[in-house]
Amino acid sequence: MTVPTGSAALGLRDGTLRQADYWAALWRRTWRGVLATSFLSPLLYVLALGVLLGGFIKADPARMEGATSYLAFVVPGLIAAHAMQLAVGEATYPVMGMIKWRPTYQAMLATPLQARHVVAAHLTTIALHLAAATGIYMLVMVPFGVYATWWGASLAWLTQIGVGMAFAVWIYGITCRLRNEEGFGLIFRLGVFPMFLFSGAFFPVANLGRVGAAIARCTPLWQGVNLSRMLTIDHITWWIAAINAGVIVLLLVGGWRWAHTGLERRMIT
Question: Model-level pTM?
Fold first, then answer.
C-alpha cells in the first residue's frame, strides 16, 4: 500500500510527541495488567530459582563471578533476560498487527507524520514498558539484599533497559520486513530461547566449555547479563564493562536506522 510521506519540516521530537495521546490512551487501558504480570512473574521466578533452588547450591564467589549467593548471581541475569523477552514480544506481533491486521500505521502516515516519527513513538512506549517492568522487578528484589550499592543497582536498571531496547530496535526492523507472522517462530525458537538459557543468566558461561563460552559471549544478551551482574554485586572489571556497554550502544544506534528504514520501505513506496 502506498502511503503519503509526512512533512519534512516536522522534527523528530515534535512528530513523536504528537502521538502521545494515542499511546497514553492505550496505556490507560492496559497498565494494570502490565503491573500485575511485571510484579508476579519476577517474584515467582526468584522464589523458585533464587530462593528454593539456590538453597541447594553452594555459593563460591570464585566460580560464580563474584556473587556471594546463587540468588545474587541469578537475579541480574533474570531481569536482563526478562527485558529481552519483553522487548521481543512488543516488537513482533504488536508491530505486525499495526502493519497488517489493523491500519494503525497507515492512518498515522496519512498525516504529516513520517515513518521515523511513528517508529520513535512506538519504540518510546516499549522503552517505558521496559523501564516499568524492570524497575518493578528491581524493587521486588530489594528485601532480598542482593544489591551491593544503590548506584550499582541504578546503573544495572539502565543496562537492562538498554539491552531490552537493543533487541527491540532490531526485531522491530525484522518485523517490518516480514510479510507474515510465520517468521516469529524462528525468532523465538532459534534466537530468544537459546539466548535465554545459554547467555549466563542461570549459570556462568564458562561451564559451556571454551567454544561454547566464546559463542555465548558474542550474544547481545550476555553483554547485558554480564554488565547488569557486575554492577549489581559490585564486582566490576571496568574494561569488560566498557566493552559490554559499547556493544549495547552500537546495537542501539545501528538498530534505530534498521528499524525506521524498515518501516519506510514497507509502508512508503
Answer: 0.89
